[in-house]
UniProtKB/TrEMBL annotation, chain A:
It comes from the Bacteria. InterPro entries: UPF0210 (IPR007841). NCBIfam families: PRK05313.1. This is Uncharacterized protein.
């Protein structure tokens, strides 16, 4: 029997502290949709998605109402589309993106990921065609997100791909200049991309998964922030060590994860498809009180980005994993704390105030998931510099055997310090300055490949 | 339950002091009574207990009352006793909360008739209250009901009506499946 104070705490977590399930993502394999030509393939893609995901949104809403826990986004992740379009040309890939967008709209999901390729150890012809298609594909669709995996710890980093993708990011931003370069917010470059990640823009339904499955991404920075505040008020700052606060984060992460596990499993059970993983990520939103940056301030840095910030993120990330792992039968995806600047009000303010800079964000990504995420940079930064930023971040992932990603938005016509707003969950931010622009060109122009690190040889 | 046994529900109320549970249970034991289930609570210095016990058929309703009256006579606090013979299959299920229970929390300013208002909705909508407690939080009165909605024809209708009711009465009411509370507070994940 649950005590009444436990009931009230649980109600408060949901009603006042922004506990929600960020994403219920249905992974669908489209490998069997490949046909002789693009038109027939598009038909097959739409048919398959609309068949499997027809009841996804209504099921999520019914279960969400049963527990009074919001499911913020219902999403679909599909097989990286370069596999499905093997042999096709760039125009064909654009058509496939449009088919994915129409299917997503027809079943009512918020967003769809998987306009993707894995080129970590080299390109196929159709991988290049698909990459060429990204700018047009994302500009002609509303719900489609794209990602490219350019490196793994096992195979190294494909620098030729990074050279191309620096330009892709520029093209995406320029094609959507009227929306502040928003196109680039729907595209992310990865190292060690997981095949079961429910979060966007990098969700794909990787190879080696069930044909159809449900993955869940939890949220909950607000719940953790309030729990820490309560703990500090009750016990007194002078009586607490960081280990006590880590313990509080762990316990709270258990509760947050449990709500995701319960909802995900119920959705999967209702739809009679396998449940995949809970992704234990602290995903912030631009809402007040739902911020990872705020947790950092509660844990003792007056300005986010001040010395100590990296250590705090390391502790937070680890405590979330420890609490979440026990709460869930199967954990996967990215699982850690996110630091997406635009989507987190406190981080965005820290960038505006100059306390948080690109280099410190890069340091923080060494100890958390996922990477340089939703950072607006000046539109004048050239493609080669963007490629070099990607290379640095990919190297962190490759060497540390972890997932890293880059999702940066070179906002056309704007310079450091100016504001840009993308609306909704994508939030807003001041534009972060980039130092040493244009000084990495010779490095990027080498292209080729950064060989796999010595510790890739683990057999 | 053994054969040739009768089940009784016994309710006890007294000002709280040390020893009441022992005195009552000892007298039941003296009559060869077997206690199957007990709930006990103390509210504002008053003790209350309800228990289910089975007695040999040779022990009459009157015998039990008489025995418990002796407890009252010896006690320094007055003990009110009620004894009822169970005329349905009263075997304890082991589960106080069924699988399909819902928690209803109603919050609002403290006022006369708060409980009556909320419980009127339950009564009018065939909602059975399994457990009820109230508390105050942040200067407001909070009523927590664990309810059985299995006799309600439609969950959607209940949710809609509950929203209208809350708006009309100026209360904040949340209705959630009990499993979410188990999921975030207990070790086991409640997947049925």
């Amino acid at each position: 029997m649950i005590q009444s104070d436990e009931i009230l705490n649980t109600v408060d977590m949901i009603q006042k502290e922004n506990l929600d399930v960020r994403a219920v993502t249905m992974g669908i394999s489209l490998l069997d949709c490949h046909r002789e030509d693009a038109a027939a393939t598009c038909q097959a893609i739409k048919k398959k998605i609309e068949h499997h995901a027809a009841n996804l949104v209504s099921t999520c809403e019914a279960i969400s109402s049963e527990y009074a826990i919001p499911v913020v986004n219902k999403r679909i992740a599909v097989t990286p589309i370069s596999h499905v379009g093997a042999g096709f040309k760039a125009d064909d890939f654009v058509d496939m993106a449009i088919a994915l967008d129409e299917a997503a709209a027809n079943v009512g999901v918020d967003i769809l990921g998987g306009f993707s390729a894995d080129v970590s150890n080299g390109f196929t012809r159709w991988d290049r065609e698909m990459i060429d298609a990204i700018p047009e594909a994302l500009c002609r669709t509303r719900k489609v997100c794209s990602s490219v995996n350019v490196g793994t710890t096992r195979s190294g980093i494909n620098m030729d791909a990074i050279v191309l993708l620096g330009q892709t990011v520029k093209d995406l931003a320029e094609k959507t200049a009227d929306q502040g370069g928003f196109g680039a917010a729907k595209f992310v470059v990865f190292t060690n991309q997981p095949g079961d990640n429910p979060f966007m823009a990098g969700a794909v339904h990787g190879l080696g998964q069930h044909e159809v499955m449900i993955n869940v991404g939890v949220s909950g920075p607000g719940v953790i922030a309030r729990a820490l505040e309560r703990k500090i008020t009750q016990s007194g700052r002078e009586n607490l060590g960081l280990h006590d606060l880590a313990e509080e984060i762990k316990r709270t992460a258990f509760r947050v994860t449990r709500s995701g596990e319960l909802i995900g499993r119920q959705v999967a059970k209702t739809l009679s498809i396998p449940f995949g993983v809970v992704d234990l990520s602290l995903a912030p939103t631009p809402n007040i009180g739902d911020s990872v940056g705020e947790i950092m301030q509660i844990l003792g840095v007056d300005a986010v980005g001040a010395p100590g910030s990296t250590a705090i993120i390391a502790m937070l990330n680890d405590a979330v994993k420890k609490g979440g792992t026990f709460a869930s039968q199967s954990v996967g995806g990215l699982s850690g704390a996110f630091i997406p600047v635009c989507e987190d009000r406190t981080l965005a303010y820290a960038v505006r105030d100059g306390s948080l800079v690109l280099e410190k964000l890069e340091a923080m990504t060494c100890v958390c998931s996922v990477g340089l995420d939703m950072i607006a940079i000046p539109g004048s930064v050239d493609a080669a510099t963007i490629s070099a930023i990607m290379a640095d971040e990919m190297a962190i992932g490759m060497i540390n055997n972890k997932t890293t990603a880059v999702r940066i938005i070179p906002v056309p016509g704007k310079e450091a310090g100016e504001m840009v707003s993308f609306g909704g969950l994508f939030g807003e931010s001041a534009i972060a300055p980039v130092r040493n622009v244009g000084k990495s060109k010779r490095f990027v122009e080498f292209g080729g490949k950064i060989p796999a690190p010595i510790h890739s040889l683990r057999n | 339950m053994r054969t040739n046994q009768n089940q009784y529900v016994i309710s006890i109320m007294s000002r709280d002091r040390v020893g009441i549970v022992h005195e009552v249970s000892q007298s039941i034991c003296d009559l060869d009574g077997n206690i199957a289930d007990i709930r006990q609570s103390v509210l504002c210095g008053y003790f209350t207990m309800i228990l289910l016990a089975s007695f040999p058929s040779s022990v009459s309703h009157r015998d039990i009352e008489r025995k418990l009256a002796e407890v009252d006579a010896r006690s320094e606090t007055a003990i009110d006793v009620a004894v009822k013979k169970v005329d349905v299959d009263g075997r304890p299920s082991g589960k106080t909360i069924p699988d399909n229970a819902y928690v209803l929390t109603a919050t609002g300013p403290d006022r006369v008739g708060f409980v009556a208002t909320v419980s009127s909705f339950c009564a009018n909508n065939n909602i059975n209250i399994l457990d009820l407690s109230t508390t105050s939080a942040n200067g407001e009165y909070v009523m927590i009901l664990i309810t059985d909605l299995s006799k309600c024809p439609s969950m959607e209708a209940i949710r809609r009506d509950l929203q209208d009711f809350a708006r009309e009465k100026g209360l904040r009411i949340v209705l959630q499946h009990y499993d979410i509370f188990r999921a975030v507070n207990e070790i086991n994940l409640p997947i049925h």
